[in-house]
Write a structure and sequence with these properties.
Blueprint: H1 5-9, H2 19-28, E1 30-34, E2 37-40, E3 48-54, E4 57-63, E5 66-73, E6 79-81, E7 98-101, E8 105-111, H3 112-122, H4 124-194, H5 199-217, H6 224-240, H7 246-255, H8 260-269, H9 275-313, E9 321-323, H10 325-335, H11 337-340, E10 344-349, E11 357-359, H12 361-380, E12 386-395, E13 398-405, H13 435-446, E14 450-456, E15 459-467
Parallel strand pairs: 10-12
Antiparallel strand pairs: 1-8, 2-7, 3-6, 3-8, 4-5, 4-7, 9-11, 12-13, 13-15, 14-15
Length: 481
């Protein structure tokens, strides 16, 4: 269609251009009429710059398998397409959205390379400023993103160190005590060996020792009241049979699952004169078994923490795999347990029947970390006591992961900006404003999912929706920095 310099000069984007410049635009570009339907598609090579002369245009972004409308307007002069053509080959030039028209519409269309040439020739200072703004923002975002990951790593390391220290210290204490008890057992064995015990007595003692060790392994868990009643009964039994310091021995026997009936069997199996030594021998046996159980529990806890750290970091695992989100959530919660603290109650509402989903697990863990960290910060801002609920469910054909906190909520006037880069409500030095931006890009761009928020005072919910099956993106989506 014919291009009129007067007509395109009436568009706000070109109204300050000279008649000569408008003539050059018309000569280099074209006016094109589009029937209702698509003009270009997100992810395609950006070859043209479009300025609407008349009609109605709709811009959308691909989210999962859906095109989500982000803008609809009939305003003359609105523009889209290869708006960053002035950056040339330094940035991959693709359409960042899809554009369609809903009625017959006319556009002034300028090839991307020509648009870049005019920008460089007519507005050299503006181009330098725009280049500096673009690359400066990218570099700043990358640097702060790396810094945020380092801060998160430091926080996680501190939490993991704290979690590892408790079982490690318990194992060290138990080992030292075990060494002392084994020494006393050797001493007691020496005393027994010097006594006038018959081979039958020794066989009985060894048999009782073995059966006692078996009972320790199967000791029941008693309530405080039950344990107290059993300790009293054992103390009375030991006193009645002339065992000194029975009140000291009774709690150990109760912890091991021994009762008065068991001690009656011991008394029936050995002569009365060797019963005190037999009870002392059994006490050392029980103590060593309990100490070894404590060491085993502590080392198992350490092993569990190391496994959780590997699960969180996805060491030795493929970047992209079919993953169980519950394993990822549990490892992240464990890694952040030190930061969450004792005052915040964590509630897990998992639907364990949900299928595994194709994902980048390490990056999803980064999303969970950011969302949990924000929830903890929100709860702490109201006094530090509250509840964090992590819920999974099936939402139509997608998997829902929801983080709900009882903090003050996200004010309505900033709710639309929380996913913007560098936007933060945390005090200076406590937040970079990239956590939610990175999370959004990981969920939306990398996993073709959705990240949304619903908030009211005392009830804020960040919801991640992930597709249940792999989505072929043809390598056109931007990966998170």
């Amino acid at each position: 269609m014919p291009c009129s310099p007067t007509e395109i000069g009436s568009l706000f984007l070109f109204e300050k251009l000279s008649s000569e410049q408008l003539g050059q635009l018309c000569a280099a570009g074209r006016v094109e009429r589009f029937e209702p339907g698509p003009v270009y598609t997100e992810g395609e090579a950006a070859t043209c710059f479009y300025v609407m002369i008349e009609g109605t245009v709709v811009l959308s972004r691909r989210v999962g398998g859906d095109d989500v409308e982000v803008s609809r307007t009939s305003q003359r002069g609105v523009y889209s397409g290869s708006m960053q053509a002035y950056l040339g080959d330094r940035v991959r030039q693709i359409y960042n959205n899809s554009m369609r028209v809903t009625e017959p519409s006319r556009f002034f269309v300028l090839p991307a390379e020509t648009f870049s040439d005019f920008m460089q020739e007519w507005f050299p200072m503006a181009v330098h400023l725009l280049e500096g703004l673009f690359f400066g923002s990218k570099n700043t975002q990358r640097a702060i993103g790396q810094r945020e990951r380092l801060l998160a790593l430091g926080s996680l390391s501190a939490g993991l160190t704290h979690e590892l220290n408790n079982p490690a210290a318990a194992a060290v204490r138990a080992t030292a005590t075990l060494r002392e008890r084994v020494g006393k057992m050797r001493h007691k064995l020496g005393i027994i060996a010097q006594g006038s015990y018959t081979p039958e007595d020794m066989a009985n003692l060894i048999d009782i020792q073995e059966r006692t060790a078996e009972r320790v392994a199967k000791a029941p868990v008693l309530s405080p009241l039950e344990a107290s009643d059993r300790e009293d009964a054992l103390s009375d039994w030991l006193d009645d049979h002339g065992i000194q310091d029975g009140w000291r021995i009774a709690p150990t026997f109760v912890q091991a699952g021994l009762d008065a009936d068991w001690l009656d069997q011991v008394a029936a199996a050995v002569d009365e004169e060797i019963l005190p030594n037999a009870i002392g021998w059994l006490n050392y046996t029980v103590e060593t078994e309990l100490l070894m159980d404590e060491i085993n529990d502590s080392t198992a806890r350490i092993s569990h923490l190391v496994d959780a750290a590997k699960q969180y970091s996805q060491l030795d695992r493929a970047p992209y795999q079919v993953a169980d989100v519950h394993e990822l959530l549990d490892s992240t919660l464990l890694m952040l347990s030190g930061k969450i603290g004792q005052q915040i109650k964590v509630v897990k509402e998992y639907d364990r029947t949900l299928p595994r989903v194709p994902a980048y697990p390490a990056e999803l863990n980064q999303v969970w970390t950011n969302l949990i960290d924000n929830a903890v910060h929100a709860i702490n801002s109201t006094g530090g006591e509250g509840t964090l609920t992590v819920r999974t469910a099936l939402d139509h054909d997608r998997l829902l992961v929801e983080f709900r906190d009882t903090g003050p909520g996200v004010p309505a006037d900033i709710r639309g900006r929380i996913f913007d880069p560098f936007f933060t409500t945390k005090p200076v030095g406590e937040g970079t404003g990239l956590g939610l931006d990175i999370s959004w890009r990981i969920v939306v761009n990398k996993h073709h999912g959705t990240l949304q928020v619903e908030s009211s005072p005392g009830d804020t919910r960040f919801q991640v929706l992930l597709p249940l099956t792999a989505v072929d993106d043809n390598d056109t989506t931007e990966e998170p920095e």
